[in-house]
Write a structure and sequence with these properties.
single chain, alpha/beta, seven-stranded mixed sheet, 11 helices, 44% helix, binds S-adenosylmethionine
């Protein structure tokens, strides 16, 4: 299969994956604090022109618009953008919603004062291509702000646990949590940015009483987890093995209590 056809097929698969389950509920119930945190860390102010890449339902885009910025929320998945549009209406903020692949953004060079991505661009399969696009559409002196799950943190470990059950990615595709590794993301952005700050932080999650509760929620709502189970198909032993592995992962993180800490990397940089 030639590379262009392969990329189109992969894009279609990813678009469908993120429409599975109910990501909007995860955004609202679990990861909601990350968007405003990124907006604050990037110093978004009234009048800024901001792009949120892989914006989903607008976790960063909506608070950026509420801060007075002029915002474009862009994502591969039209279903999530539509849900985001409704959320923004409910909150009384206006922004542009734009269907686009992070690897080929339909914007001009230097169009934005700030380019943000909250646990978003990390899921585009070709890391260097996406990083090049983030840098390209940011104006010189503008801000790039990213939040990415780390490989060592809970969601990084979730992906490692699911990997043996997921369809094998085509060659050239890198694992999402690598964006949460300082060295990797610094190398992706390279000399085109300066004043880089990185900080590992954790999101406190108190939604789950035990491992099976986490597993069942992600099995029902989270596209990548639903995809792993679909890839297994009807094999009861493999389903039971993944069931047990996901519950054990969450039980370990809960330490017998009712809160978990999910580690992520917050990066802020200035384009030269
Ligand atoms: C974990 S969600 C994060 C959404 C949102 N930023 C948030 O904080 O809730 C990952 C998002 O990345 C989007 N995505 C995945 N691959 C993409 C790509 N190649 N280009 C643009 N968006 C992509 C998905 O559609 C999904 O909305």
């Amino acid at each position: 299969m030639n590379a262009v056809v392969q990329d189109r097929e992969l894009e279609a698969k990813h678009r469908a994956l993120w429409a599975l389950g109910d990501y909007r509920t995860i955004a609202a119930e679990i990861v909601a604090p990350l968007g405003p945190e990124l907006v604050a860390a990037a110093g978004i102010k009234p009048g800024d022109r901001v792009l949120d890449v892989a914006a989903g339902t607008g976790n960063a885009a909506i608070p950026a618009a509420a801060a007075g910025a002029s915002v474009v929320a862009s994502d591969l998945c039209p279903e999530l953008l539509e849900q985001g549009r409704r959320l923004a209406d409910e909150r009384g903020v206006t922004l542009d919603w734009n269907e686009a692949n992070a690897e080929a953004l339909p914007f001009g060079d230097g169009e934005f004062d700030a380019v943000l991505s909250c646990i978003g661009v990390m899921f585009a399969p070709h890391h260097q291509q996406s990083a090049d696009e983030l840098v390209r559409v940011c104006r010189p002196g503008g801000t790039i702000g990213l939040i990415s799950w780390t490989p060592e943190g809970f969601i990084g470990q979730l992906f490692a646990t699911m990997k043996p059950y997921m369809p094998a990615p085509p060659p050239g595709v890198s694992p999402p949590p690598l964006w949460g590794s300082e060295d990797h993301v610094r190398a992706l952005l390279g000399e085109r940015v300066t004043d880089i700050t990185t900080e590992r932080r954790t999101l406190t999650v108190s939604r789950f009483s035990d491992g099976p509760a986490f597993r069942d929620y992600f099995k029902a709502n989270y596209g990548p987890t639903i995809t792993a189970y679909r890839a297994i198909g009807e094999d009861p032993q493999r389903v039971a093995a993944l069931d047990a592995a996901l519950a054990a992962l969450a039980d370990d993180a809960l330490h017998g209590g009712s809160t978990m800490e999910w580690e992520y990397l917050l990066l802020v940089a200035r384009k030269r």
